[in-house]
Amino acid sequence: MSHVISKHQKIKFRIWLFAALVASLVCLSGATLKPNIVLIYADDLGYGDVTCYGAQPGLTPNIDRLAEHGLRFTDAHSPSATCTPSRFAMLTGIYAWRERGTGIARGDAPAIIKPGTPTLASELKKAGYRNGVVGKWHLGLGPEGGPDWNGKIAPGPLEIGFDYAFLIPATGDRVPCVYVENHRVVNLDPEDPIQVSFGKKVGDEPTGAERPDLLKMKFHHGHNRTIINGISRIGYMAGGESARWTDEDMADDITNKAVEFIDRNHRVPFFLFFSLHDIHVPRVPHPRFVGQSGMGPRGDAISQTDWCVGEIMDALDKHGLTEDTLVIFASDNGPVLNDGYYDDAVERIGDHRPAGPFRGGKYSKFEAGTRTPFITHWPNRIEPGVSNALVCQIDLMASLTELTGIQPEPAAGPDSENILNALLGDSCHGRQTLVEHAFGLSLRDGHWKYIEPSGGAAKSGSTQIELGNMKEPQLYRLDIDPGETKNLAEKYPEQLQLMKSQLQSIREAGKI
Q1: Are 250 and 280 in contact (CB under 8 A)?
Q2: Which of 14, 512, 141, 69 is nearest to 309 (CA)?
Q3: pTM more than 0.85
Q4: Which residues contact 79 (CB under 8 A, 6 or more apart)?
Q5: Is there a contact between 377 and 326 (Cβ–Cβ < 8 Å)?
Q6: What is the pLDDT along the chain (512 residues), one digit of tens a residue?
Q7: Measured between alpha carbons, how far apart are the two ends of the chain, in Å?
């Protein structure tokens, strides 16, 4: 037999060898390159506030495009029915109800996540990510006793894994009404120092209670202190005139900073936590959105939220990053209409159902307290579709560390579960159990839901949201009764006892 290799065979061999080399390089690069990660976190946006979840056509075209080309979840949850604990749990992987001081933070609260605590940002940093947070923070700043608004403001995001921060320190309805960039108040004149108090009045500026005639938006409850930009706030503030924000420009301000972060870091793997303020009160959208929704300021603020999403996607497109970026869209808790100001949210709601088919809303133990829109979008990896998997934002730490090949610290995210396969659409199964947190605890186990007995009002007097407080235990089957209308506790005592014991075990064990 002849062992002579023909010229044609040599050419074929070289082609095969080249192809094999290219394939190996592709495999190698795929093993080392990490997707950019953008978490767009809306505020108080309900399950039914987005068109792809049942809202009026045309309200949220940019969010709808994420869903059209991504994975839309129908049973996704924020970690809590209010903002501060949701943000704490999402970033740390720890149920907020385990930690003292994680309730709704005052505007002058000290840093709630202490330096040294493993966070989603600190874990991603191990994989070489450049991390930025832009927008609403509401997790406290500074040492015990609160921040020095006129000096270096630390600790904060930069001490727990972020490389850049441009912050609304708390919320738009709380003082101080200034932005903080990294460790300093933006545009602060040292000759006009800031004073903040949540006790006695500081300075001589009028309050909403004293001068309601100066207000361009009337307060309903609890928002009657210092007037800034024609809106009275929670708490007192004096000074810092040159640093104060204009509410109508807030969405533009934070979106521009988020886009700038992408522009600066598009050549390296980055994690952007873009934390919107809309549709939290006070709802004061930019004039170009006023009247756009037909539902008053709340609906117009939803349109503004959607615009913010579009700007981020345009920035990714500009740098050719869209295909290789995991975009996650979520909300920190369920919806609320009247939350402190007269802004026609109730009067102009029409047929719109902010909570979709669910009961309750922000603050509530019922499903609408934590069941929110949740979309994952990554064209090079995620097939478009709809997922019914039970997922929670608290699981981002375990799931994204798995995605990026990080070996997390043993103490990192004790309540966070790796549900990466569900987030990427590779599995229709997420969690089996989940503790839902409002002002009290509930337990999901598959389609079953148990709500602990508790006292207190059945409804919030200000929001008129059903809080889920009942003296007797509650048990529901959400697959046949999503509106939680039929309490099955007496009909299924064994299931009730099982879930009661499960919840107690989770509470005592310190982790799931």
Answers
A1: no
A2: 69
A3: yes
A4: 85, 86, 88, 89, 90, 95, 96, 370, 392, 393, 394, 437
A5: yes
A6: 444 445 455 454 454 444 444 444 333 333 335 999 999 999 999 999 999 999 999 999 999 999 999 999 999 999 999 999 999 999 999 999 999 999 999 999 999 999 999 999 999 999 999 999 999 999 999 999 999 999 999 999 999 999 999 999 999 999 999 999 999 999 999 999 999 999 999 999 999 999 999 999 999 999 999 999 999 999 999 999 999 999 999 999 999 999 999 999 999 999 999 999 999 999 999 999 999 999 999 999 999 999 999 999 999 999 999 999 999 999 999 999 999 999 999 999 999 999 999 999 999 999 999 999 999 999 999 999 999 999 999 999 999 999 999 988 888 999 999 999 999 999 999 999 999 999 999 999 999 999 999 999 999 988 899 999 999 999 999 999 999 999 999 999 999 999 999 999 999 987 54
A7: 68
How many C-beta atoms surround the C-beta of residue 418 within 10 A?
Answer: 17
Sketch the domain layout of the chain as residue ranges. 34-190+239-426, 195-237, 436-509
Distance CA(482)–CA(364), nearest Å, equals 15
* Greatest distance between any 2 Cα atoms in the chain: 106
CATH number (3.30.1120.10, 3.40.50.2300, 3.30.43.10, 3.40.367.20) of 436-509 reads 3.30.1120.10
Fold that domain 34-190+239-426 belongs to in CATH? Alkaline Phosphatase, subunit A (3.40.720)
The answer to whether 111 touches 141, Cβ cutoff 8 Å, is yes
Which residue type is seen at 95? Answer: Y
